[in-house]
Amino acid sequence: MADLIRKHRCRVGSWWRRLPPGRQALLVLVHLRRNKTFAGLAAAFDVGAATAHRYVIEVIELLAELAPDLQQASDPHLDIEGVPDPNTSPGSTPTHPA
After folding, report:
1. Model pTM?
2. Residue 74: what pLDDT?
3. Are 44 and 30 in contact (CB under 8 A)?
4. d(Cα 47, Cα 56) in Å, to the nearest integer?
5. 6-23 average pLDDT score
6. Residue 50: inside a domain, yes or no?
7. pLDDT, tens digit, for every residue of 28-84?
8. In this structure, is residue 13 part of a structural domain?
9. pLDDT for the residue 75
């Protein structure tokens, strides 16, 4: 995650931040894993609450850019819960009610 942040900072021309990329990544992980408030993150990482919020949102947006969209991620042979759909699985015959 730190490399992703580092590359993003270079891409947008951000030459200075309060936290280096590794610490920003840790801040985000603490927020996601421990559900720490922004005020708690601010105190723990010696930044302002607004900065903690901005750092979290920035990384979540970067991670979202990496994720496939729903169309790419969906398997046509699975239903919404990931269970094989007998109507679309290879080699099956549709079982539509009459």
Report:
1. 0.67
2. 64
3. yes
4. 12
5. 90
6. yes
7. 999 999 999 999 999 999 999 999 999 999 999 999 988 876 666 666 666 666 666
8. yes
9. 62
And the tokens for 89?
Answer: 């699985």
Buried b (16+ CB within 10 A) or exposed e, 68-86: eeeeeeeeeeeeeeeeeee
Count of Cβ atoms closer than 10 Å to residue 45 Cβ:
19
Backbone angles phi and psi of 84, in degrees to 5: -55, 130
Domain with 63 in it: 2-69
Structure tokens belonging to residue 56: 């979290």
Under DSSP, is residue 18 helix (H, G, I), strand (E, B) or coil?
coil
Split into its structural domains, the chain has a count of 1
pLDDT at 68: 74
Distances (CA, A) of 62 to 5, 9, 25, 98: 8, 11, 11, 48
Residue 94 lies inside a defined structural domain of this protein: no
What length is written for the chain? Answer: 98
Instruction: Tell me the backbone φ, ψ of residue 78, rounded to 5 degrees.
Output: -120, 145
